[in-house]
Specification:
Blueprint (H helix, E strand, L loop, with lengths): L19 E11 L2 E10 L6 H9 L5 E10 L2 E9 L9 E2 L21 H18 L1 H4 L6 H7 L16
Parallel strand pairs: 1-4
Antiparallel strand pairs: 1-2, 2-5, 3-4
Length: 167
């Protein structure tokens, strides 16, 4: 498969009958602070989520990575993170190192509320981990060094390994 191909092998574009929204969290460094904005749209019929996320991110993004999914009343949301944000003048919010959101009990893992700030923090923790474990991700660090320096403030671990108030 060519770099940035639209149909990665071993994946299916859509699950019949399931509506999907693709969101791309775009990260940037603004005034010494890690910032984000989120762009999203419905996944088109027959469209691969990677292609949708790439079109949402726009030209100039050096890394695009799938970070999570969640259920909403309208279907599922597939989340990607991209960096650096190719639009330096876009309206953004600061990324905060927020506690991991989770469900109310072990048999209900979906949190009752997921804010965009939670999604952005999760994406940054995910990237902080992958920077040290995934050669493809590590290879993009020099393309957006200021952004990666700010991502380093996040605990580099997958969600299940993060400390919680109950441990």
């Amino acid at each position: 498969m060519e770099l940035g191909g639209d149909s990665p092998s071993g994946s299916v574009a859509m699950i019949r009958g399931v509506r999907a929204l693709v969101e791309t969290v775009l990260l940037s460094a603004r005034g010494g602070q890690l910032c984000f904005r989120t762009v999203s749209r419905r996944l088109g019929a027959g469209e691969h989520p990677d292609a949708c996320a790439r079109s949402l991110a726009g030209p100039g993004v050096g890394l695009l990575h799938s970070t999570s999914w969640r259920y909403t009343e309208g279907g599922i949301v597939l989340t990607y993170v991209g960096l650096p944000d190719p639009e330096p003048a876009a309206l953004v919010a600061p990324v905060r190192d927020l506690p991991t959101v989770r469900g109310v009990d072990p048999l209900t893992p979906s949190p009752p509320v997921v804010r965009q700030a939670d999604v952005a923090a999760h994406a940054c923790r995910h990237l902080a981990f992958l920077r040290h474990t995934d050669p493809q991700v590590a290879g993009t660090v020099t393309q957006a060094a200021r952004v990666w320096d700010l991502i380093d403030m996040f605990t580099p671990a997958v969600a299940g390994l993060l400390p919680t108030k109950t441990r």
